[in-house]
Amino acid sequence: LWRFGYSARLLKTNHFRTAASNTSFPAARMLLAQYSGRIPGRLVVVEKEKFFTMSETVEDKANLELYSPHPEVRGMTLLNREAFKRTVVVPVLKVKKNIVNTLLKSLKHTVLQRPGLKRVVEDPKDEDSRLVILDPQKVPEFSLEESEHEVLKQLNVYPEVSKYNLELTYENFKLEEILRAVLPEGQEVTSGFSRVGHIAHLNLRDHQLPYRYLIGQVIIDKNPGITCVVNKTSIIDSTYRNFQMEVLAGENNLVTKVKENNITYELDFSKVYWNPRLSTEHSRIVELLKPGDVLFDVFAGIGPFTIPAAKKKCRVFANDLNPESYRWLLHNCKLNKVDNKIKAFNMDGRDFLLGPVREELSKELPLLKEEQKPSFHVVMNLPALAIEFLDVFRHLLVREPCSTADLPMVHCYGFSKHNDPAKDIQERAEASLGTSLDGRCSTYLVRNVAPNKEMLCISFQIPLDMLYKRPCPAEGKEQA
Protein backbone atom coordinates (compact mmCIF):
# COMPACT_ATOMS: atom_id res chain seq x y z
CA LEU A 1 0.00 0.00 0.00
CA TRP A 2 2.54 2.55 1.10
CA ARG A 3 4.63 2.98 -2.01
CA PHE A 4 7.13 5.71 -1.25
CA GLY A 5 9.14 7.24 -4.10
CA TYR A 6 12.32 9.06 -3.25
CA SER A 7 13.70 12.22 -4.80
CA ALA A 8 17.14 11.95 -6.37
CA ARG A 9 19.64 13.13 -3.78
CA LEU A 10 23.18 14.29 -4.21
CA LEU A 11 23.85 13.30 -0.62
CA LYS A 12 22.18 11.15 2.02
CA THR A 13 18.58 11.98 2.88
CA ASN A 14 16.18 10.80 5.54
CA HIS A 15 13.81 8.87 3.29
CA PHE A 16 11.26 8.11 5.97
CA ARG A 17 10.95 11.74 7.02
CA THR A 18 10.57 12.89 3.41
CA ALA A 19 7.97 10.27 2.46
CA ALA A 20 5.90 10.07 5.58
CA SER A 21 6.27 13.67 6.86
CA ASN A 22 5.04 13.68 10.45
CA THR A 23 2.62 10.76 10.13
CA SER A 24 2.48 8.75 13.33
CA PHE A 25 2.12 4.97 13.30
CA PRO A 26 -1.51 5.09 14.54
CA ALA A 27 -2.27 7.64 11.84
CA ALA A 28 -0.64 5.42 9.26
CA ARG A 29 -2.85 2.52 10.36
CA MET A 30 -5.90 4.78 10.06
CA LEU A 31 -4.95 5.68 6.47
CA LEU A 32 -4.39 2.00 5.72
CA ALA A 33 -7.85 1.16 7.02
CA GLN A 34 -9.42 3.96 4.99
CA TYR A 35 -7.73 2.71 1.87
CA SER A 36 -9.05 -0.80 2.42
CA GLY A 37 -12.59 0.51 2.90
CA ARG A 38 -13.03 -0.44 6.55
CA ILE A 39 -13.30 3.12 7.84
CA PRO A 40 -15.52 5.73 6.14
CA GLY A 41 -14.15 9.20 5.55
CA ARG A 42 -11.50 10.82 3.45
CA LEU A 43 -9.53 8.47 1.27
CA VAL A 44 -5.83 9.22 1.26
CA VAL A 45 -3.25 7.59 -0.95
CA VAL A 46 0.38 8.36 -1.57
CA GLU A 47 1.76 8.59 -5.06
CA LYS A 48 4.85 6.68 -5.97
CA GLU A 49 7.13 9.21 -7.58
CA LYS A 50 8.60 7.95 -10.80
CA PHE A 51 11.71 9.89 -11.50
CA PHE A 52 15.48 9.54 -11.41
CA THR A 53 16.73 8.23 -8.09
CA MET A 54 20.12 7.68 -6.56
CA SER A 55 20.71 4.88 -4.09
CA GLU A 56 21.53 5.98 -0.57
CA THR A 57 24.91 5.13 0.88
CA VAL A 58 25.58 4.56 4.57
CA GLU A 59 29.25 5.05 5.33
CA ASP A 60 31.13 5.16 8.60
CA LYS A 61 33.91 7.58 9.42
CA ALA A 62 36.59 5.19 8.22
CA ASN A 63 34.86 4.85 4.87
CA LEU A 64 34.66 8.60 4.50
CA GLU A 65 38.38 8.96 5.14
CA LEU A 66 39.35 6.14 2.81
CA TYR A 67 37.13 7.13 -0.09
CA SER A 68 37.40 10.90 0.11
CA PRO A 69 39.12 12.68 -2.79
CA HIS A 70 42.26 14.71 -2.17
CA PRO A 71 41.61 17.40 0.48
CA GLU A 72 42.84 20.14 -1.86
CA VAL A 73 39.63 19.94 -3.90
CA ARG A 74 37.71 21.68 -1.09
CA GLY A 75 36.20 24.91 -2.40
CA MET A 76 36.76 24.08 -6.09
CA THR A 77 34.23 25.84 -8.34
CA LEU A 78 35.67 24.92 -11.74
CA LEU A 79 35.98 21.17 -12.17
CA ASN A 80 39.56 19.89 -12.35
CA ARG A 81 39.40 16.12 -12.59
CA GLU A 82 43.16 15.66 -12.17
CA ALA A 83 43.01 17.21 -8.68
CA PHE A 84 40.96 14.27 -7.39
CA LYS A 85 43.81 11.77 -7.68
CA ARG A 86 44.74 10.11 -4.42
CA THR A 87 46.77 7.06 -3.43
CA VAL A 88 45.43 4.78 -0.70
CA VAL A 89 46.81 1.60 0.83
CA VAL A 90 44.54 -1.41 0.32
CA PRO A 91 44.85 -5.14 1.02
CA VAL A 92 45.46 -7.55 -1.85
CA LEU A 93 45.53 -11.30 -2.20
CA LYS A 94 47.94 -13.04 -4.55
CA VAL A 95 46.35 -15.88 -6.57
CA LYS A 96 47.11 -17.86 -9.68
CA LYS A 97 45.44 -16.30 -12.69
CA ASN A 98 43.61 -19.50 -13.67
CA ILE A 99 41.45 -19.43 -10.50
CA VAL A 100 40.79 -15.65 -10.36
CA ASN A 101 37.17 -15.92 -11.51
CA THR A 102 36.40 -18.69 -9.03
CA LEU A 103 37.93 -16.68 -6.21
CA LEU A 104 35.99 -13.53 -7.15
CA LYS A 105 32.72 -15.46 -6.88
CA SER A 106 33.67 -17.04 -3.57
CA LEU A 107 34.82 -13.76 -1.99
CA LYS A 108 32.45 -11.39 -3.80
CA HIS A 109 31.50 -9.60 -0.56
CA THR A 110 35.14 -9.08 0.38
CA VAL A 111 36.49 -7.81 -2.94
CA LEU A 112 36.67 -4.01 -3.36
CA GLN A 113 33.80 -2.52 -5.35
CA ARG A 114 34.39 0.98 -6.71
CA PRO A 115 33.11 2.73 -9.88
CA GLY A 116 35.46 2.21 -12.81
CA LEU A 117 37.99 0.32 -10.70
CA LYS A 118 39.62 -2.97 -11.70
CA ARG A 119 39.30 -5.56 -8.97
CA VAL A 120 42.20 -7.58 -10.34
CA VAL A 121 45.63 -6.21 -11.33
CA GLU A 122 48.78 -7.81 -12.63
CA ASP A 123 51.44 -8.96 -10.22
CA PRO A 124 54.67 -7.15 -11.26
CA LYS A 125 56.76 -9.93 -9.73
CA ASP A 126 54.93 -12.95 -11.18
CA GLU A 127 53.29 -13.03 -14.60
CA ASP A 128 51.36 -16.23 -13.74
CA SER A 129 49.68 -14.60 -10.74
CA ARG A 130 47.28 -11.76 -10.19
CA LEU A 131 46.55 -9.45 -7.26
CA VAL A 132 42.92 -9.37 -6.15
CA ILE A 133 42.09 -6.06 -4.41
CA LEU A 134 40.11 -6.49 -1.20
CA ASP A 135 37.89 -3.99 0.55
CA PRO A 136 39.82 -2.55 3.52
CA GLN A 137 36.55 -2.14 5.40
CA LYS A 138 35.92 -5.87 5.09
CA VAL A 139 39.52 -6.81 5.87
CA PRO A 140 40.39 -4.84 9.03
CA GLU A 141 44.06 -4.79 9.95
CA PHE A 142 44.75 -6.71 6.72
CA SER A 143 43.60 -9.94 8.29
CA LEU A 144 41.05 -12.36 6.84
CA GLU A 145 38.32 -13.99 8.90
CA GLU A 146 38.08 -17.72 9.55
CA SER A 147 35.33 -18.27 6.94
CA GLU A 148 37.50 -16.62 4.29
CA HIS A 149 40.47 -18.74 5.31
CA GLU A 150 38.33 -21.81 4.70
CA VAL A 151 37.46 -20.64 1.18
CA LEU A 152 41.11 -20.02 0.37
CA LYS A 153 42.06 -23.41 1.73
CA GLN A 154 39.60 -25.12 -0.60
CA LEU A 155 41.07 -23.20 -3.54
CA ASN A 156 44.62 -23.92 -2.41
CA VAL A 157 45.40 -20.21 -2.07
CA TYR A 158 47.93 -19.02 0.49
CA PRO A 159 45.97 -16.70 2.83
CA GLU A 160 48.59 -13.97 3.10
CA VAL A 161 47.25 -10.43 2.69
CA SER A 162 49.69 -7.84 1.35
CA LYS A 163 49.56 -4.06 1.10
CA TYR A 164 49.12 -2.36 -2.25
CA ASN A 165 49.28 1.31 -3.21
CA LEU A 166 46.09 1.98 -5.18
CA GLU A 167 45.61 5.22 -7.09
CA LEU A 168 42.05 6.51 -7.04
CA THR A 169 41.05 8.99 -9.73
CA TYR A 170 38.01 11.16 -10.41
CA GLU A 171 36.38 8.24 -12.23
CA ASN A 172 36.54 6.07 -9.10
CA PHE A 173 34.64 8.45 -6.81
CA LYS A 174 30.87 8.55 -6.54
CA LEU A 175 28.91 11.71 -7.17
CA GLU A 176 28.03 12.24 -3.51
CA GLU A 177 31.67 11.70 -2.47
CA ILE A 178 32.87 14.34 -4.91
CA LEU A 179 30.34 16.94 -3.80
CA ARG A 180 30.95 16.22 -0.13
CA ALA A 181 34.66 16.84 -0.70
CA VAL A 182 34.22 20.02 -2.74
CA LEU A 183 31.47 21.96 -0.98
CA PRO A 184 32.23 23.73 2.33
CA GLU A 185 32.21 21.65 5.47
CA GLY A 186 29.32 22.30 7.83
CA GLN A 187 26.95 23.45 5.07
CA GLU A 188 24.06 21.37 3.78
CA VAL A 189 24.88 20.08 0.33
CA THR A 190 21.75 18.02 -0.28
CA SER A 191 19.85 18.86 -3.45
CA GLY A 192 17.07 16.92 -5.13
CA PHE A 193 16.98 16.62 -8.87
CA SER A 194 14.64 14.97 -11.32
CA ARG A 195 15.33 13.55 -14.75
CA VAL A 196 13.32 14.59 -17.80
CA GLY A 197 14.64 12.69 -20.79
CA HIS A 198 18.27 13.76 -21.25
CA ILE A 199 17.82 16.70 -18.84
CA ALA A 200 18.63 16.75 -15.12
CA HIS A 201 16.63 19.42 -13.32
CA LEU A 202 17.96 20.81 -10.04
CA ASN A 203 16.66 23.23 -7.42
CA LEU A 204 19.88 24.52 -5.90
CA ARG A 205 19.91 26.58 -2.73
CA ASP A 206 21.66 29.93 -2.45
CA HIS A 207 24.79 28.59 -0.73
CA GLN A 208 25.22 26.00 -3.49
CA LEU A 209 25.09 28.47 -6.37
CA PRO A 210 28.84 29.26 -6.45
CA TYR A 211 29.41 25.56 -7.19
CA ARG A 212 26.54 25.12 -9.65
CA TYR A 213 28.62 24.63 -12.79
CA LEU A 214 30.79 22.03 -11.10
CA ILE A 215 27.70 20.24 -9.73
CA GLY A 216 26.16 20.22 -13.20
CA GLN A 217 29.25 18.73 -14.84
CA VAL A 218 29.67 16.05 -12.17
CA ILE A 219 26.02 14.99 -12.65
CA ILE A 220 26.65 14.56 -16.38
CA ASP A 221 29.86 12.62 -15.74
CA LYS A 222 28.24 10.25 -13.26
CA ASN A 223 24.87 9.67 -14.97
CA PRO A 224 24.98 8.09 -18.44
CA GLY A 225 22.29 9.50 -20.72
CA ILE A 226 22.13 12.93 -19.08
CA THR A 227 23.57 15.50 -21.45
CA CYS A 228 22.08 18.71 -20.04
CA VAL A 229 21.76 19.99 -16.46
CA VAL A 230 19.53 22.95 -15.57
CA ASN A 231 18.76 24.82 -12.39
CA LYS A 232 15.45 26.52 -11.68
CA THR A 233 16.00 30.23 -11.15
CA SER A 234 12.44 31.37 -10.36
CA ILE A 235 9.13 30.05 -9.10
CA ILE A 236 6.58 28.57 -11.51
CA ASP A 237 4.77 31.24 -13.50
CA SER A 238 1.14 31.11 -12.39
CA THR A 239 -0.10 31.84 -15.90
CA TYR A 240 1.79 29.37 -18.06
CA ARG A 241 3.15 26.98 -15.37
CA ASN A 242 6.78 27.23 -16.47
CA PHE A 243 9.85 28.79 -14.88
CA GLN A 244 13.12 30.42 -15.82
CA MET A 245 16.13 28.13 -15.77
CA GLU A 246 19.88 28.25 -16.28
CA VAL A 247 21.83 25.62 -18.17
CA LEU A 248 24.66 24.59 -15.85
CA ALA A 249 26.43 21.99 -17.98
CA GLY A 250 26.17 20.09 -21.23
CA GLU A 251 24.31 20.93 -24.40
CA ASN A 252 21.87 23.83 -24.48
CA ASN A 253 19.07 21.64 -25.79
CA LEU A 254 15.85 21.64 -23.75
CA VAL A 255 13.68 19.85 -26.30
CA THR A 256 13.45 16.33 -24.95
CA LYS A 257 11.51 13.09 -25.05
CA VAL A 258 10.06 11.27 -22.05
CA LYS A 259 8.09 8.08 -21.58
CA GLU A 260 5.37 7.79 -18.94
CA ASN A 261 3.02 4.84 -18.47
CA ASN A 262 4.12 3.44 -21.85
CA ILE A 263 3.26 6.68 -23.67
CA THR A 264 5.88 8.90 -25.34
CA TYR A 265 5.80 12.68 -25.00
CA GLU A 266 7.99 15.31 -26.60
CA LEU A 267 8.34 18.79 -25.11
CA ASP A 268 10.44 21.90 -24.70
CA PHE A 269 11.23 21.79 -20.99
CA SER A 270 11.95 25.53 -20.90
CA LYS A 271 8.49 26.48 -22.20
CA VAL A 272 6.01 23.93 -20.82
CA TYR A 273 5.31 22.28 -17.48
CA TRP A 274 6.33 18.67 -16.91
CA ASN A 275 6.74 16.89 -13.59
CA PRO A 276 7.95 13.27 -13.63
CA ARG A 277 6.70 12.86 -10.05
CA LEU A 278 3.07 12.86 -11.19
CA SER A 279 3.20 9.65 -13.22
CA THR A 280 1.23 7.60 -10.68
CA GLU A 281 -1.38 10.32 -10.28
CA HIS A 282 -1.94 10.52 -14.03
CA SER A 283 -2.41 6.76 -14.10
CA ARG A 284 -4.77 6.79 -11.10
CA ILE A 285 -7.20 9.21 -12.73
CA VAL A 286 -7.14 7.45 -16.09
CA GLU A 287 -7.92 4.14 -14.38
CA LEU A 288 -11.21 5.68 -13.21
CA LEU A 289 -12.34 6.13 -16.81
CA LYS A 290 -14.17 3.59 -18.96
CA PRO A 291 -14.24 3.41 -22.77
CA GLY A 292 -16.88 5.82 -24.00
CA ASP A 293 -16.53 8.21 -21.05
CA VAL A 294 -15.99 11.92 -21.63
CA LEU A 295 -13.00 13.76 -20.14
CA PHE A 296 -12.71 17.53 -19.91
CA ASP A 297 -9.05 18.36 -19.20
CA VAL A 298 -9.13 22.04 -18.20
CA PHE A 299 -5.36 22.56 -17.73
CA ALA A 300 -4.10 19.83 -20.04
CA GLY A 301 -0.44 20.78 -20.46
CA ILE A 302 1.14 18.52 -23.06
CA GLY A 303 -1.40 15.75 -22.47
CA PRO A 304 -0.50 13.35 -19.59
CA PHE A 305 -4.21 12.90 -18.73
CA THR A 306 -5.54 13.58 -22.22
CA ILE A 307 -3.56 11.12 -24.33
CA PRO A 308 -3.89 7.98 -22.14
CA ALA A 309 -7.63 8.72 -21.79
CA ALA A 310 -7.96 8.94 -25.57
CA LYS A 311 -6.04 5.68 -25.95
CA LYS A 312 -8.61 4.18 -23.61
CA LYS A 313 -11.26 5.17 -26.21
CA CYS A 314 -12.68 8.06 -24.21
CA ARG A 315 -13.84 11.27 -25.85
CA VAL A 316 -11.56 14.04 -24.70
CA PHE A 317 -11.84 17.83 -24.67
CA ALA A 318 -8.41 19.23 -23.75
CA ASN A 319 -7.46 22.83 -23.07
CA ASP A 320 -4.41 24.87 -22.06
CA LEU A 321 -3.85 28.62 -21.97
CA ASN A 322 -0.13 28.39 -22.70
CA PRO A 323 0.34 28.55 -26.51
CA GLU A 324 3.47 26.38 -26.24
CA SER A 325 1.65 23.73 -24.20
CA TYR A 326 -1.17 23.77 -26.74
CA ARG A 327 1.33 23.33 -29.58
CA TRP A 328 3.04 20.39 -27.87
CA LEU A 329 -0.34 18.92 -26.92
CA LEU A 330 -1.31 18.80 -30.60
CA HIS A 331 2.13 17.40 -31.46
CA ASN A 332 1.90 14.61 -28.86
CA CYS A 333 -1.67 13.72 -29.83
CA LYS A 334 -0.46 13.23 -33.37
CA LEU A 335 2.69 11.42 -32.20
CA ASN A 336 0.53 8.93 -30.29
CA LYS A 337 -2.09 8.68 -33.07
CA VAL A 338 -5.04 9.93 -31.01
CA ASP A 339 -5.47 13.34 -32.65
CA ASN A 340 -8.81 12.25 -34.15
CA LYS A 341 -10.18 11.44 -30.67
CA ILE A 342 -9.35 14.78 -29.04
CA LYS A 343 -10.74 18.27 -29.40
CA ALA A 344 -8.04 20.71 -28.29
CA PHE A 345 -8.47 24.32 -27.21
CA ASN A 346 -6.11 27.21 -26.40
CA MET A 347 -8.25 29.18 -23.94
CA ASP A 348 -8.38 30.46 -20.40
CA GLY A 349 -9.65 27.69 -18.12
CA ARG A 350 -12.70 29.67 -17.06
CA ASP A 351 -13.65 30.39 -20.67
CA PHE A 352 -13.19 26.72 -21.52
CA LEU A 353 -15.60 25.69 -18.75
CA LEU A 354 -18.15 28.34 -19.67
CA GLY A 355 -17.82 27.58 -23.39
CA PRO A 356 -17.00 24.10 -24.76
CA VAL A 357 -17.66 22.25 -21.47
CA ARG A 358 -21.04 23.90 -20.86
CA GLU A 359 -22.01 23.41 -24.50
CA GLU A 360 -21.12 19.70 -24.51
CA LEU A 361 -22.84 18.95 -21.20
CA SER A 362 -25.97 20.83 -22.25
CA LYS A 363 -26.08 18.79 -25.42
CA GLU A 364 -25.16 15.37 -24.04
CA LEU A 365 -26.87 15.06 -20.64
CA PRO A 366 -30.51 15.29 -21.87
CA LEU A 367 -29.81 12.73 -24.62
CA LEU A 368 -28.40 9.98 -22.42
CA LYS A 369 -30.14 6.65 -22.70
CA GLU A 370 -30.28 4.04 -20.00
CA GLU A 371 -28.09 1.61 -21.94
CA GLN A 372 -25.37 4.22 -22.64
CA LYS A 373 -24.57 5.81 -19.30
CA PRO A 374 -21.13 7.29 -20.05
CA SER A 375 -19.51 9.17 -17.20
CA PHE A 376 -18.31 12.76 -17.43
CA HIS A 377 -15.05 13.71 -15.70
CA VAL A 378 -13.50 17.16 -15.30
CA VAL A 379 -9.78 17.25 -14.41
CA MET A 380 -8.40 20.54 -13.08
CA ASN A 381 -4.66 20.11 -12.52
CA LEU A 382 -3.43 23.62 -11.72
CA PRO A 383 -2.74 23.26 -7.99
CA ALA A 384 -1.91 26.91 -7.38
CA LEU A 385 -5.22 28.22 -8.74
CA ALA A 386 -7.65 25.46 -9.74
CA ILE A 387 -9.88 25.71 -6.64
CA GLU A 388 -10.63 29.33 -7.52
CA PHE A 389 -12.22 28.11 -10.77
CA LEU A 390 -14.80 25.90 -9.05
CA ASP A 391 -17.30 28.74 -8.76
CA VAL A 392 -17.87 28.33 -12.52
CA PHE A 393 -19.98 25.25 -11.79
CA ARG A 394 -22.60 27.29 -9.92
CA HIS A 395 -25.70 27.09 -12.16
CA LEU A 396 -23.51 26.24 -15.14
CA LEU A 397 -26.45 24.48 -16.87
CA VAL A 398 -30.04 25.58 -17.41
CA ARG A 399 -31.89 22.50 -18.63
CA GLU A 400 -33.20 20.09 -16.01
CA PRO A 401 -31.41 16.73 -15.67
CA CYS A 402 -33.08 13.36 -15.80
CA SER A 403 -30.89 11.65 -13.18
CA THR A 404 -28.27 12.47 -10.58
CA ALA A 405 -26.21 9.54 -11.91
CA ASP A 406 -25.31 11.65 -14.95
CA LEU A 407 -23.72 14.47 -12.97
CA PRO A 408 -20.07 15.16 -13.87
CA MET A 409 -17.26 14.11 -11.54
CA VAL A 410 -14.65 16.78 -10.80
CA HIS A 411 -11.02 16.06 -9.86
CA CYS A 412 -9.49 19.32 -8.65
CA TYR A 413 -5.91 19.77 -7.42
CA GLY A 414 -4.56 22.16 -4.83
CA PHE A 415 -1.67 22.88 -2.49
CA SER A 416 -2.06 23.07 1.28
CA LYS A 417 0.23 24.10 4.16
CA HIS A 418 -2.48 23.44 6.75
CA ASN A 419 -2.03 21.01 9.67
CA ASP A 420 -5.02 19.09 8.28
CA PRO A 421 -4.54 19.46 4.50
CA ALA A 422 -7.54 17.28 3.59
CA LYS A 423 -9.88 19.41 5.70
CA ASP A 424 -8.32 22.60 4.34
CA ILE A 425 -8.72 21.59 0.69
CA GLN A 426 -12.35 20.58 1.24
CA GLU A 427 -13.25 23.81 3.02
CA ARG A 428 -11.68 25.91 0.25
CA ALA A 429 -13.51 23.91 -2.42
CA GLU A 430 -16.80 24.36 -0.55
CA ALA A 431 -16.22 28.11 -0.29
CA SER A 432 -15.67 28.37 -4.03
CA LEU A 433 -18.63 26.13 -4.88
CA GLY A 434 -20.94 27.71 -2.33
CA THR A 435 -22.17 24.36 -1.03
CA SER A 436 -21.16 21.62 1.41
CA LEU A 437 -19.30 18.53 0.23
CA ASP A 438 -19.59 16.57 3.49
CA GLY A 439 -20.04 12.89 2.64
CA ARG A 440 -19.85 13.68 -1.07
CA CYS A 441 -16.12 13.95 -1.74
CA SER A 442 -12.85 12.06 -1.48
CA THR A 443 -9.50 13.68 -0.80
CA TYR A 444 -6.24 12.19 -2.06
CA LEU A 445 -2.74 13.08 -0.91
CA VAL A 446 -0.75 13.16 -4.15
CA ARG A 447 2.71 14.09 -2.90
CA ASN A 448 4.77 16.16 -0.52
CA VAL A 449 5.92 19.23 -2.46
CA ALA A 450 8.06 20.84 0.25
CA PRO A 451 8.28 20.78 4.05
CA ASN A 452 4.74 21.41 5.34
CA LYS A 453 3.36 21.74 1.81
CA GLU A 454 1.20 19.00 0.30
CA MET A 455 -0.38 18.53 -3.12
CA LEU A 456 -3.88 17.02 -2.93
CA CYS A 457 -6.72 16.08 -5.24
CA ILE A 458 -10.33 16.48 -4.17
CA SER A 459 -12.86 14.47 -6.18
CA PHE A 460 -16.62 15.00 -6.04
CA GLN A 461 -19.74 14.75 -8.14
CA ILE A 462 -21.12 18.23 -8.79
CA PRO A 463 -24.21 18.65 -6.56
CA LEU A 464 -27.43 18.71 -8.55
CA ASP A 465 -28.88 21.85 -6.96
CA MET A 466 -25.67 23.74 -7.64
CA LEU A 467 -25.05 22.69 -11.26
CA TYR A 468 -28.57 23.50 -12.54
CA LYS A 469 -30.52 26.72 -12.20
CA ARG A 470 -33.60 24.75 -11.19
CA PRO A 471 -33.84 21.14 -9.95
CA CYS A 472 -35.79 18.21 -11.35
CA PRO A 473 -39.52 18.46 -10.45
CA ALA A 474 -39.39 15.31 -8.29
CA GLU A 475 -36.39 16.55 -6.35
CA GLY A 476 -37.90 20.00 -6.05
CA LYS A 477 -40.75 18.57 -3.94
CA GLU A 478 -38.27 16.83 -1.64
CA GLN A 479 -36.27 20.00 -1.13
CA ALA A 480 -39.43 22.00 -0.43
TrEMBL record:
Residues 193-464 form the SAM-dependent methyltransferase TRM5/TYW2-type domain. One of its GO terms (biological process) is tRNA N1-guanine methylation. It catalyses: guanosine(37) in tRNA + S-adenosyl-L-methionine = N(1)-methylguanosine(37) in tRNA + S-adenosyl-L-homocysteine + H(+). Keywords: Cytoplasm, Methyltransferase, Mitochondrion, Nucleus, S-adenosyl-L-methionine, Transferase, tRNA processing. It comes from the Eukaryota. One of its GO terms (cellular component) is mitochondrial matrix. GO terms for molecular function: tRNA (guanine(37)-N1)-methyltransferase activity. Belongs to the class I-like SAM-binding methyltransferase superfamily. TRM5/TYW2 family. Involved in mitochondrial tRNA methylation. Specifically methylates the N1 position of guanosine-37 in various tRNAs. Methylation is not dependent on the nature of the nucleoside 5' of the target nucleoside. This is the first step in the biosynthesis of wybutosine (yW), a modified base adjacent to the anticodon of tRNAs and required for accurate decoding. This is TRM5 methyltransferase. The lineage of its organism: Eukaryota, Metazoa, Chordata, Craniata, Vertebrata. The gene is Trmt5.
